[in-house]
Amino acid sequence: RHQIWLLGGFFVGVALLGTLWSLRISQVAAAAPQRAFRWRALAEPRAALRELRGRHSLVLCIVGLSFFWFVGVLLYANLSLHAEQVMTGTSAGLLLSVLAGGVGLGSLLAGRASGEIVEFGLTPIGAALMMVGSASLPLFTGSVPATCAALAVLGVGGGLFIVPLSTYVQEAVPRHERGRILACQALVTSSAVLLAYPILLLL
């Protein structure tokens, strides 16, 4: 019980810190102040989907981002079971930390390699690294260092995969439509995340 209070206090502290830090964000003018707020929940997603018609590159980026988070949810759930049932005595937190660190490193590398442009060439490289890392995991179930190395490769690939897609979605959309398209992307991504859970039950 004492540990639960500590954990809860930690997350509340992080939330407060994030709230205070967000106050430092500069205020900007509304991109489309003339647009009225719509109370119908599905009105904006439908408008965003109409905006996306014929913009195949943008649609593919949104699908790729949704796929990334879909795979991420599956991987998160399986890593927890993997640590508990296969690699007995290994902390799931360690495996997830290595994976998250790899994603961060891959994102930094993608930013460095891209410079001022959207470098789509990094996306297939990232996908290949994700595939290699995922395929390597079953081969190293008896070795924590080897498993961590495979997760690091997977994470780096994830960072290389996601950065160009995220950047393009934000850069390719006109300023007055950006919020609507990003909201649509978030809706599609959330749907992909929700889809992962019934698939986990089937597996």
Order of helical and strand elements: HHHHHHH
What's the count of strands? 0
Separate helix tally: 7
Overall pLDDT metric: 86
Catalogue the unreliable spans.
none
Distance between the termini: 33 Å
Question: Can you describe this structure?
Answer:
The chain contains seven helices and no strands. It is an all-alpha fold. Helix 5 runs antiparallel to helix 6.
Which key features would you list for this structure?
203 residues; mainly alpha; 76% helix
Question: How are the SSEs placed, and which strands pair?
Answer:
Layout: H1 2-22, H2 43-52, H3 56-86, H4 92-114, H5 122-136, H6 144-172, H7 178-202
Helix pairs in contact: 2-7, 3-4, 3-6, 3-7, 4-6, 5-6
Quick structural summary:
By secondary structure, the protein is mostly helical.
